[in-house]
Design brief:
It is built from one helix and ten strands, in the order βββαβββββββ. The longest helix has 5 residues. A four-stranded antiparallel sheet has the order 2-3-4-7, with no helix packed on it. With 179 residues, it is mostly beta strands. The protein has one domain: Immunoglobulin-like. The chain is globular.
Length: 179
């Protein structure tokens, strides 16, 4: 059983973004932007995986402002939570004009063992699509707290974002270091 101190799930209400983020998401597979391990797209559906240590991130992201700068991190301090953030755009819709996107997140220790996971989280299910061209934050996420007894080194965060309507699966990867 996973300790609550280590990993905890966050469930968010529907959030429609009317914000511009300084990071671009490729909206179609013909984009000339190179993909990175944490940014992928296929068939008009795109997703990104970022890490932040901002505990007010979700609250601040939801505020109607002209833009929001996501503070990203690649290092974690013991005892202080960091949050994998999944951002996406271009989900497909079914005959009822609703989306069906899920996300699974796995955190691995430096030696490859599973530290925590969130399987089949509700990224954006049974909801209308965000306005075209807008980025959307996942409704499902998790927090990670590295404890004193946990090993030092490079941890891996893997997210699989699946658009069940478009039948597209994107595998994203991000890292953080612990001293």
């Amino acid at each position: 059983m996973l300790a609550v101190k280590k990993v905890f799930a966050l469930s968010l209400s529907s959030i429609i973004l009317l914000l511009t983020v300084s990071i671009a998401i490729a909206q179609n597979s013909t984009s000339s932007s190179p993909e990175k391990p944490n940014i992928k797209s296929s068939g008009g559906f795109g997703a990104q995986l970022w890490l932040t240590d901002d505990p007010d991130f979700y609250k601040n992201w939801n505020k109607p402002t002209p833009g929001y700068k996501l503070r990203t991190v690649n290092n974690a301090l013991r005892g202080k939570p960091i949050f994998p953030v999944v951002i996406f755009a271009g989900p497909g819709t079914n005959e009822k004009n609703l989306c069906d996107v899920i996300v699974s997140i796995v955190v691995k220790t430096p030696d490859g063992k599973i530290y925590g996971e969130l399987p089949n989280g509700n990224c954006w299910q049974n909801l209308p699509p965000p306005p075209e061209g807008n980025l959307q934050i996942s409704n499902a996420s998790m927090g990670i707290v590295i404890e004193e007894k946990d090993p030092s080194g490079r941890y891996t965060v893997e997210a699989t974002v699946k658009d069940k309507v478009k039948n597209v699966e994107l595998y994203l990867k991000q890292y953080f270091d612990v001293k």
